[in-house]
Every structure is written in structure tokens, then in C-alpha cells.
Amino acid sequence: MIITISGESGSGKTTVGKLLSNLMNYKFISGGYFFREKAKEYNMDLINFSKYAEKHQEIDHEEDTMLLNFIKSNDNIIIESRLSGYLSYKNNINAYKIYLFVSENERINRLKLRDKNIDKSDIIRRGRSELKRYMIFYGINYKDFSYYDLIINTDKYKPAEISEIIIKRLKDKNI
Question: CA–CA separation, 69 vs 125, rounded Å?
């Protein structure tokens, strides 16, 4: 089985994905990790690299290709990225697609704790940059929830509780 986890930065995608992979003994891959590593390669912070990626479509396409190849060549995986659910849907990949929703205030609070040198305007700018890139490059709004099998508001739950909700849903659906 393939499980995708999508959502904005700070929604808990990586934390929940890692917890689920441990609970289910699945492989885990993070699209965010790829993007951060690319930013380091270019010697840029995430905000400037996001702006750079707006004009260099190959950055997102390289990540998408890597994610799709991983999905197509593996089973029993959990893959998190903003577009993993959409990419699975678009490519007719049989995956259970999860979207983790987070309010802007909670997202900003979480990201300020995680990334010490970031401020609210940087977080908002990065989110707008990502939304813009996906609209320009793919013609999609990754916040369109119609691609997903399960949507969870992560403002209300701790990561372990979210993992339990997902596992319960999978069992209830006999997946």
C-alpha cells in the first residue's frame, strides 16, 4: 500500500509520516527533505530558494520525478510532500491520499519553533511562492481537497493522535 501525506509546511506531514512509517513498518520519504537539500546545494535559505524555484521550473520537476519514481518502484511506503497526493491522483497510482490541514496561526507558531531564524512574513511569502509555482507549473491548487481520501485538521490533535486516526481509518476501510 502507498500512503501519501500532503499539506502546508508546519502541518505535521513529516512528523506524522515518520510516526506512521514506524507503526506500520513502511518506508518513508520526505519531499521537504529534498527541497531543503537543494536549497543547501544552491547556498540559499528556503525563502530565497522558493523565489528562485518560481523562475526555474526544473527544481519542482526534478523533485516530482524523484517522488514518482520512488512511488512507482516501491510498495508499503509513506511519502510526504505538498503534491504527493495530487501526483498520485494525476498518474493513476493507487494510493491512500491524506491531507493535513493547519490554520495559518498554528502553522506560523510551529514553523517559528522549528526554524529559529524565520519570521511570519517569511512564512507567508514562502507559502504564497509555493502556491504560485504550483498554479503556474501545474495549473493546480494543492489545497483543492478533492484529491484526498482523508483530511485532518492538525490544530486539534497531537501527531500520535493523528497517526491513530489514520490507522483506524485504514482498518475501517479494510485497506
Answer: 30
Tens-place pLDDT, residues 134-157: 787 778 877 788 989 999 999 989
Domain count, the chain: 1
User: What's the domain range around 147?
Assistant: 2-172
Residue ranges of E strands in the chain? 2-7, 27-30, 77-80, 96-101, 150-153
Give pLDDT tens digits for 16-49. Answer: 999 999 999 999 988 877 778 888 999 998 778 8
Q: Which residues pair with 79 in a beta bridge?
A: 4, 29
Amino acid at residue number 39: A
> Quick one: which of 86, 65, 97, 66 has its CA closest to 140?
86
Q: How far is CA 66 from CA 6, 35, 146, 165, in A?
A: 16, 11, 24, 29
Enter the DSSP assignment of 81.
-
CATH number at residue 153: 3.40.50.300
Opening angle at CA 104, ends 101 and 110, nearest 5: 85
Assigned C-alpha cell, 98: 491524506
